[in-house]
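Hello,

Our lab assistant flagged a job as stuck in the queue for most of the afternoon. It eventually completed. Since we weren't sure the result was trustworthy after the delay, we are filing this so someone can double-check. Below is the sequence as submitted and the structure that was eventually returned. Let us know if re-running is recommended.
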Amino acid sequence: MIELVHLDKTFQTADGAVEALRDISLTIEDGDIFGIIGMSGAGKSTLVRCINMLERPTGGTVIVGGDDMTKLSPAALREKRRSITMIFQQFNLLMQRTCLKNVCFPMELDGKSKKDAKKKARELLDLVGLPDKALAYPAQLSGGQQQRVAIARALATNPEVLLCDEATSALDPNTTHAILELIRDINKKLGITVVVITHQMSVVEEICSHVAILDEGRVVEQGDVAQVFAHPQSDAAKKLVFPNGEETVLPPQENQARLRIGFNGSATADKPLIATMAAEHGILANILGASTRAFHEQAFGEMLIGVPAAQKEEALAFLRSVPGITVEEVPEDA
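-- returned structure --
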């Protein structure tokens, strides 16, 4: 388990103090894939670097696997970092070494024999889908292949935690999908806790179970990914979940009732809701506004519709019979 308790980080600059992190408290359960997302400058990379003490926090506590990282001696911290590995946007491979020797490198630092290190490195290259690239050099590989080698290297010390700092930001969408699939597969096979730092909501929705949203160094929202998608509360969360903004709300027509539909995980593959209401019940509805999005073949968000006032009760009864949604009438003066 990773616990961040009232974490602060202040940098001193020529122009004065800059508060990068402010009173952050998070709990990341063992084996979880946890996303930390925010716009540029929100403090994401500083936060992840505080987890392994590459940045020492100004205040607060970082507990990983029961150990308070802020209180470890230099020797104990070096030992602890072997269980907390990291992959980066730019891969950070040693260009003069083959892929095999890149993966061997952390094991050599640990004093492992060359024979054992090479055996383990080949197993890891096989795990990440590159068994035939052992003798290739990083410059001979695509960006996605280089990131796979970086992941294999990160796994060489049998870590308990894998930190991914914008690990797919330099990759095209198809390669990003493949790398995320690999990370999810490794999480399932090895039970490694994964912390994903990203500015892309698409990365969170594809791989993460839980998410924390950072804005100006603070956690403004956190929870189950589906829950945050369904009801984003903060302005920062709304901008990330609905980057194009919520649709303009149109005024209802005369003799119309307004109904607000909440999508809380209804299946997107089911029959179209508004079309079904019209075809099967003869209720014609106007869509007055909507802010919805699909996540893992489920719909989340809200829609505002107008229905004939005389058919309001029938519409409410139909909508309330549909699994995964909530519905309420919106007062005329709201």
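-- support follow-up --
The delay was a queue issue, not a problem with the job. The result is valid. The chain is about 35% helix and 30% strand. The longest strand covers residues 16-28.
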